Structure formats: C-alpha cells, structure tokens
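PT: before anyone asks, these are the final sequences, not the draft ones from last week. 582 residues across everything. Please model them as a single complex and drop the result in this thread when it's through.
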Amino acid sequence: MHSMTTFADQPLEEQIAQWRNYLRRRQAVHGPDVEELEGHLRDQLAALTEAGLAADEAFLVAVKRMGNLDALSREFARAHSERLWKQLVVAPEADAPANTSRTEILVVLSLALAAGLAVKLPALFGLPLSPEEEVPPFYFRNASLFVFPLLTVYFLWKRGVNAVSGLWLALPFTAAAVVANVFPFHNPERLDNFPVGSDTQVLTVLHLPIALWVMAVGVAYVGGRWFSSGRRMDFVRFSGELAIYYVLIALGGGVVAAFTAMLFSAIDMNPAWFIGGWLIPCGAAGAVIIGSWLVEAKQSVIENMAPVLTRLFTPLFTILLLVFLVTMAWTGSPINVKREVLIGFDLLLVVVVGLVLYAASARDPQAPPDFFDGLQLLLVVSALVVDGVTLAAIAARISEFGFTPNRVAALGENLILLVNLTWSAWLYMRFMRHRGSFADLERWQIAYLPVYAIWAALVVVIFPPVFGYR
Amino acid sequence: MDMSKDLVAASATPLVLAILAEGDSYGYAIIKRVAELSGGHLQWTDGMLYPVLHRLERQGYVAAKWAASENGRRRKYYRISKEGRAHLAAQREQWKAVDGTLRGIWMQACTV
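LR: through. Structure below.
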C-alpha cells in the first residue's frame, strides 16, 4: 500500500478501522461498499492533513462530511432493496478469495452425491429399498452411518483439521458400525416390540444418531476444540438451524416428489420405484450435507431462526404443560407406561431443554431478567413436575414388573433431564433474584451436553448385551 | 445559501451524469468537482453520493469498474454509458424548461 493513504499515524489507522467495523455491521452496506466508502474517507483525510489539519481533527471533519451512518445505510437499503431480503445462496465474503467458495461448492456437492449413493450401496448386497416392501431395519440401524461420516469429513475439511487427527473420528464410526451390525439382536428383521422384535435394537436405532451427532460430527464441527464452550454453543446453534433448514428442504422435496408422481401418472407410468427407491432416500441423505453447508454459509448473514421459534413457542409449551398438569391432577388419571408414551414424554422434555438452550444461545448474557425469563422459569418448573410424574410412573412399573431395556432407558433419560432441569431452575431462580448471572445458566447447559451423548452411547453399547439382545 | 433537500436530491442525477460525461471519475473526485462547479453552494453529505452512484449503475446509466488508483488502493471508477448520455440529454431538456419558465416569470417581475 502506498504511503499516501495508509497513515503513519497509528491512532488514526485505529480510528479508521473502528469506523470501518461500525459500517460493516449495517446489513444494507456490503463489503465492496465499505471499501469504496473507506477509500473516500482516506482521500478526504489525505487532503485535510495536507491542508494542515492534525490527524484527529481531520478524522472528525472527514467523518462528519461522510454523514450520519444511519441515514447512509437507509439510503443504501433504498438503492438496493433486495439486500434486506438476503439471497439464499450467499455471495462469498469480499476478503475471501473467490476460488475457495467455488471449491467449497464442489466439495459439498460431491459429499451430498456420495451420501445419496451411500444409501443405495446396501442394495448391491441384496438389501434393496422398494416402495412395495417395508424398509429393512438395517437401514434404520445404520441411518446415521450413511451421512454423518461424510458430514464429518466436510467439517474436518472446512476447519482445516489435519488428516491424522481427523482419523481419530473414524473410531466412533467404526465402533458404531460394529455395534449396529454385529450384535446378534433377537429377530433383527423385525422392528416391533419384544417378544416379536428386539427392544434393544429399537433403542439402538433411536440412540446411535444422538451419540454420533455429538461425539463425531460435533467434534469435527468445533475443529477439535471441544473444550471451548463458545464453540460448543455454536454447535448447538448449528444443530438447531440445521433442523429448521432440513425441514424446509424436506418440504421442497415433498413438492418435487408430488409433481414427479403427478407428471408421470399423467402419461400412465408409475414412478413409485423412483420416488420411493431413489428420490426420497437419496434426497434425505444429501439434504443433510446441503443443509449443513447452507447453515455454515448463512450463519453470519441471516437472522437465526431457532431463537425466534423459541420466543414463539416458549409461552405455548408453558401453557400446554400447565394445563396438562392441572388436568391430570383434576382427573387423577395415571400415565400409561408404554414405549410410545415414554418416548413422547422424553421428547417433550427434550423440547423444553431445547427451548431453554436456544433461549440461552440468543440471549445477551448481560441483560437484566425480564418477563420472558420468568416465563422460561415457569416452563422449566412445570417440565420438572412432569418429569417427576413420569419418573414415578416408570419406577412403579419397574418395581411391579421388573427391568426391561425400554424402562431402564426411559428411567435414565428422565433422570438425566431431571438433573438438568433442577439445576437450570435453581440457576434461573438465582438469576431472577439478581444473585447470579445468566452466563452461569448458559455454561451449565453447555457443560451438560456431553452427558446426553455419553448416555446415548451407553444405551447403544451396553444395553444389548446386558439385556441379552432381546 | 442553504439549498432545499429536495432540490439537492433532484439535481444529483443530472449533475453526476454531467460530471461523468466530462470523463471517467470516482466518488471523491466527483464530490470535489461538484463543490468546485457550484462555488461551494452545493454541499452534499459525502456518503450520500454512493447510493446515488449505485442506483445509476443499476439503472444502466453508468458502468463501474474496480481498478488500481495512483495511491495503490483499489478504487471504484464510474463511466457514463450510452443510455446515461441519452438520459442526461433528456434531463437537460427538462431542466432547461424549468429554468426557462422561472427566468421568464422573474424577468417579467423585474420589468413590471
């Protein structure tokens, strides 16, 4: 850079950098515009200092002449109204070389294609997916193994983790493949309940993705820095955003499938083999990679959706839980301890923990408690009561009929959530009374994350042999 | 003399196009040229020039290109297009009509 517009005066350069960063935060003013405006500012500064002004005086005058930045960004927004509606596929950042983003698109597309083809691989070994027959349980047991390894590769590549340390992540996947396919499950070709099928197989299907998501994909996502709580929180945000993107992509995929069916039925052909055998399974696998890439590309650009949905649904879930508890107390009906019901209750509590987590992820930890925090506390407390009631029902069932894999898994999960919710409620209470900071709650939620993964891994690895694969 | 905001805004397009019709230029130089031509009567808020330039670029009246400047930094240069020249000619007619009308009525006021 030439001496004329890079100023020897260090404080002046700092002031310019501050001004630039301030301008960059405006969403209507893009990178090249910032560069153009900065160029103007520097030309102006050069002229003013040449005219004899001191550096700080020149800066004041130049910034004043540039005008009010709010008004300026409003004008930019009017000249480029589309910038407030951000495009879905983001242009590369100004300072990133253009070829990295092109390489990234190639990597992402190849990985998505590989994920789609991976789903078709078992068909070569006599396990086809066909719309007329039920999906073989093999696909459910291995669902996460079709996509997660490729997603892990994407993050390792993206974070520039070297291949040798990346190889460590082959370990959980290998272990998962062994556990899911070598364990001699009772009647493995049936996914129904014991005594027809195997309960532990169903538990594996449900828990393996959770364990791998955190232990392999999560580790790759944070680039190996699993102990940095900031990165962990990013992974939580990523997971939530991905879920939302995935649902959106799935909706679009459903529309494509419906039109495929309509168009080919119109000419008397039956495309069911293609839709059921290729479009949906390959699309579902590839969409995980594409969705992850979109979340990665958009994280700095679009408003996050998960916190918005959290705000929307916290009141609704609070009301739902309160009404449910009142109704149960009023009618005295006990909880029906069946697998589906237990899973439902666990999912409900997971949703509550998710609401707390996403509220924490989007909240300014410095802000004082407000009405929404009170609502969150109410939600946590009512979830605690629901959890207690469920636990009592499970315990009663166990003492009457003994241990089964489902009951023990449900017991463990409810206890884990009970611990989380109790401590969260305690921290929320301290925060509401100004005795603690919100950051404590955030740290607690983040620190607790591995517990879910470890429990899920235990269910997958220990339960089948302990319960005799039934 | 404080000029009304509306008038400043309305005159921005023909003024920028007319300056670019003299030759390719960039933001800072255009501002300097405006100040010079108006004898300091037309004071623009510097930043506001850029949304105007970008709007003209989208309308196809000017074309922009990043190029190295004499000081080594990248700079965005603007050049008037054929459509820009046509638009400038049309604007010129309109301003002439306004100017002529006002002149007429003010001359009358002097002679009455």
